[in-house]
TrEMBL record:
This is Dihydroorotase. Zn(2+) 2 binds at residues 100, 137, 175. It catalyses: (S)-dihydroorotate + H2O = N-carbamoyl-L-aspartate + H(+). The lineage of its organism: Bacteria, Pseudomonadati, Pseudomonadota, Gammaproteobacteria, Lysobacterales. Pathway: Pyrimidine metabolism; UMP biosynthesis via de novo pathway; (S)-dihydroorotate from bicarbonate: step 3/3. NCBIfam families: pyrC_dimer.
Length: 359
């Protein structure tokens, strides 16, 4: 049994760092082990212009802990009115790494999202031509489609036509939650990939209803049946380069989660790499963790993998019950539970900054 694993420094290909007073903690929690991160643009108001992305990137950079090395990769929030020229300029200037498609009202702060993909065809054509990836929250929003079917129906009604109409467009189906998504991504060409979160590898939908209503297990897309979780675990640990790490760490203040209309989102940055390691070990695939966490993502985005390394020790530790983020309590994923692996060293951090994530 390994007592330590060292892997090339990983990246997080899907994270919500939020803004303002929250940045100090969210950036620290991600930068403690990830070298780069694809930063979601669903702020209020959303990040829709090159200028807004540049300013947001500056705020994130200002929040990087001293001595840490971290590179935020910015995304453009697509709306019905997105201008193809703005997107192309942001990409060529090295500000936008990708565009994000939220179907209007599909998730947290998706109110300005796209109402009909036909409205952004010119943008997608430009992205296809320039090699810019399209990142997708893949759920339909029709009231007559069951919440648990919204990803599968999206694949059928929206994603399949996008992939057919734009065969050379790089597409990442984000935070996949179903066997249908696994099958679709696996059976599509090399331009289609998916990110998988730690929480969807660990919980199924029962987690939301364990002896009561559990708002901290609620996120979108919502966790599905056990057979879907098992399909995700097989995909993540398959060694297929189409499936790579994206945490979807999405903090909401405790009071906003524990509410009559609780927010969707799970804050997992403080435990993410440790949970992935645990899952890969349980699946007998620790040797594939590095590829999933540190190689397949950069390969898909056309970037070099990181040069540094991180190490995890087999030193059980207890996840804090809550963590303060921007002056408000946030309950992290697996709060109060004991994890097997502990981050030991991050060669991007100065001595004294490693160890358990007491951010
Ligand atoms: N995943 C979530 O449940 N919430 C995310 C939005 C998203 O990624 O869909 C958030 O910003 O809170
Ligand atoms: Zn989403
Ligand atoms: Zn997200």
């Amino acid at each position: 049994m390994n007592t330590m694993i060292s892997i090339r420094t990983p990246d997080d290909w899907h994270v919500h760092l939020r803004d303002g007073a929250q940045l100090d903690q969210t950036v620290a929690a991600t930068a403690r082990c990830f070298e780069r991160a694809i930063v979601m643009p669903n702020l209020v108001p959303p990040v829709c212009t090159v200028d807004a992305a540049r300013q947001y990137r500056n705020r994130i950079r200002a929040a990087i802990p001293p001595g840490a090395s971290f590179q935020p990769l910015m995304t453009c929030y697509l709306t019905d009115g997105t201008d193809a020229g703005e997107v192309a300029a942001g990409y060529s200037e090295g500000v936008f790494a990708a565009c994000k498609l939220y179907p209007a009202h599909a998730t947290t702060h998706a109110d300005s999202g796209v109402t009909d993909v036909r409205r952004i065809h010119a943008v997608l054509a430009t992205m296809e031509r320039t090699g810019m990836p399209l990142l997708i929250h893949g759920e339909v929003t029709d009231a007559d489609v069951d919440v648990f079917d919204r990803e599968a129906v999206f694949i059928e009604r929206v994603l399949s036509p996008i992939v057919r109409d734009f065969p050379a467009l790089k597409v990442v189906l984000e935070h996949i939650t179903t066997a249908e998504a696994v099958d679709f991504v696996r059976d599509s060409g090399s331009m289609v990939a998916a990110t998988i979160t730690p929480h969807h590898l660990v919980i199924n939908r029962n987690a939301m209803f364990q002896r009561g209503l559990r708002p901290h297990a609620y996120c979108l897309p919502v966790a599905k049946r056990e057979r879907h979780r098992l399909a995700l675990r097989r995909a993540a640990t398959s060694g297929l380069s189409k499936f790579f790490l994206g945490t979807d760490s999405a903090p909401h203040p405790r009071a906003m989660k524990e509410s009559a209309c609780g927010c969707a989102g799970i804050f997992n940055a403080p435990v993410a790499i440790e949970v992935y390691a645990q899952v890969f070990e349980e699946e007998g695939a620790l040797d594939l963790l590095e590829a999933f966490a540190s190689e397949y993502g950069p390969r898909f985005y056309g970037l070099a993998p990181n040069a540094g390394q991180i190490s995890l020790m087999r030193t059980p530790w207890q996840v804090p019950d809550e963590i303060e983020v921007g002056g408000q309590a946030v309950v992290p994923f697996l709060a109060g539970e004991t994890l097997t692996w502990q981050l030991a060293t991050n060669h991007g951090l100065r001595a004294g900054q490693s160890g358990p994530p007491t951010i």
